[in-house]
């Protein structure tokens, strides 16, 4: 490994700023200024399609028939070309029973922005009972949902080996619904019921069913179908954060020299299941809005700086998304970016970039890191989830620490002794509902393999192993690491 980490495709020593999103996976080696490892939740610079975007932007800006509409206000539902190409690609990759049509798609300013839009249009804190999270959950979604008025209505649903403890959820949502009825909560107070283009759901469920952030688990087909049925029974909207679905690859390959990729999704999304299960989202007696929406983004498959994404649902639901006031006033989110992305998809180059560049590159990083974890951490008692999968993906690996070892203690020691900073599991607990044994994550950590190269990822795992061995030795002798952590915490509280 080079003495000084140089971000790929850069002539300087650029370091991404420490934002809230990147801080949790940041790693620095402070004892030696010339040896640094950075674990950012950012795509590696070598994987950004700069030349593709340059060519596509040039095509847009040198053709007035495209450039002028691209630079004006766009249609509320988003650029028609981009929606058309997305519908085609989604149909090819997910293979639903019927082709996906462009009226099922609305363009957004990214998955985070669109989460706020969905809550704005389809919820009312006076009527929507709870927002349910499959726990552990993506922690930066909490603020978005709190801003929508749900700060005291968070509920956690534990995971199981199949991705969600559905029986636990059934019991809890039934209790909540009975309580709401006894309190006479029957109508929204802040959203008019006369909006023909929207509705207010009684519950919201937030999940990352495929390669979850942070747990890296994938929800089974059985659990996906069960979750859709529960959502229908209790008038719930399932918002699935599907931003990692295109980033999947074989868990093992005969040789890393082969470019391993996956042409078809190994599981349908919940929004696909909602189309056909038990008569589908538009079955007799249903209101046509459906109970699922797929929230997707170009951040993981192209570049996060583009700030562009899309959502998919029933045509009636998607029409409601496009009617949100901010879009009704300002026009299509990311209108200019949408036209550039439409060019990348019309040529097929973005699709090839995902299959031929991203899937093989991330797959190699993942397999190398998993091998390092199996070699260095598993013998120490660290555990991995769902180790029997043939298809894996995403950005993250979730690690359960040896019995008796707390993530907070490991985080402190790893940063101080080895200059490695990982995300402790408590960061992903659901605020206000972390008392259940399976919704508390004091013994877990999350690591990310998206930013660093393979050698740095392996070195980071080896450094973690050094810390864990030291802590285990102390635990079996004096237990001093707990005392040290307590003293350090008291000092922080004092200052």
UniProtKB/TrEMBL annotation:
UniProt feature, compositional bias: Polar residues: 8-20
Matching Pfam families: Aminotran_1_2
Disordered: region residues: 1-20
InterPro entries for the chain: Aminotransferase_I/II_large, PyrdxlP-dep_Trfase, PyrdxlP-dep_Trfase_major, PyrdxlP-dep_Trfase_small
GO MF: 2-aminoadipate transaminase activity; pyridoxal phosphate binding
Residue ranges annotated for the Aminotransferase class I/classII large domain, each copy included: 71-464
PANTHER family assigned to the protein according to its UniProt record, in alphabetical order: AMINOTRANSFERASE, LD15494P
Protein name: Aminotransferase class I/classII large domain-containing protein
Species name: Ascochyta lentis
């Amino acid at each position: 490994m080079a003495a000084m980490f140089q971000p790929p495709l850069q002539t300087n020593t650029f370091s991404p700023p420490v934002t809230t999103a990147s801080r949790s996976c940041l790693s620095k080696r402070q004892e030696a200024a010339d040896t640094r490892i950075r674990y950012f939740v950012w795509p590696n610079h070598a994987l950004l399609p700069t030349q593709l975007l340059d060519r596509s932007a040039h095509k847009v800006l040198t053709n007035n028939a495209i450039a002028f509409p691209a630079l004006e206000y766009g249609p509320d539902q988003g650029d028609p070309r981009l929606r058309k190409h997305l519908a085609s690609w989604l149909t090819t990759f997910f293979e639903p029973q019927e082709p996906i049509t462009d009226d099922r798609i609305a363009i957004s300013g990214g998955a985070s922005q669109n989460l706020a839009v969905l809550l704005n249009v389809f919820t009312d804190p006076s009527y929507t009972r709870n927002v349910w999270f499959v726990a552990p959950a993506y922690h930066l979604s909490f603020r978005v949902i709190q801003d929508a008025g749900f700060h005291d209505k968070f509920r956690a649903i534990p995971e199981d080996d199949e991705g969600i403890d559905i029986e636990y959820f059934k019991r809890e949502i039934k209790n909540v619904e009975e309580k709401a009825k006894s309190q006479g909560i029957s109508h929204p107070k802040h959203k008019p019921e006369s909006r023909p283009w929207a509705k207010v759901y009684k519950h919201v469920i937030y999940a990352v069913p495929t390669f979850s952030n942070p747990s890296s688990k994938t929800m089974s087909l059985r659990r996906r179908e069960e979750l859709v049925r529960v959502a229908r029974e209790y008038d719930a909207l399932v918002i699935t954060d599907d931003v990692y679905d295109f980033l999947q690859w074989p868990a093992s390959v005969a040789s890393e020299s082969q470019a391993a990729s996956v042409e078809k999704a190994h599981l349908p999304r919940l929004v696909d299941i909602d189309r056909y299960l038990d008569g589908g989202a538009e079955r007799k007696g249903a209101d046509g809005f459906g109970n699922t929406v797929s929230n997707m983004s170009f951040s993981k498959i192209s570049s996060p700086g583009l700030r562009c994404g899309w959502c998919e649902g029933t045509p009636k639901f998607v029409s409601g998304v496009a009617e949100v006031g901010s879009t009704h006033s300002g026009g299509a989110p990311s209108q200019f970016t949408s036209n550039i992305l439409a060019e990348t998809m019309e040529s097929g180059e973005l699709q090839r970039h995902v299959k031929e560049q991203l899937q093989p590159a991330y797959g190699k990083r993942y397999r190398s890191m998993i091998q390092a974890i199996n070699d260095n951490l598993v013998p120490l008692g660290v555990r991995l989830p769902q180790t029997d999968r043939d298809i894996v993906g995403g950005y993250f690996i979730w690690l359960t620490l040896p019995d008796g070892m707390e993530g907070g203690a490991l985080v402190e020691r790893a940063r101080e002794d080895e200059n490695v900073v990982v995300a402790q599991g408590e960061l992903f607990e659901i605020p206000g509902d972390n008392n259940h044994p399976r919704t508390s994550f004091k013994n877990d950590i999350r690591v990310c393999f998206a930013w660093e190269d393979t050698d740095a990822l392996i070195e980071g795992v080896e450094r973690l192993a050094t810390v864990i061995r030291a802590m285990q030795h102390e635990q079996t002798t004096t237990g001093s690491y707990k005392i040290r952590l307590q003293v350090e915490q008291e000092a922080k509280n004092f200052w």
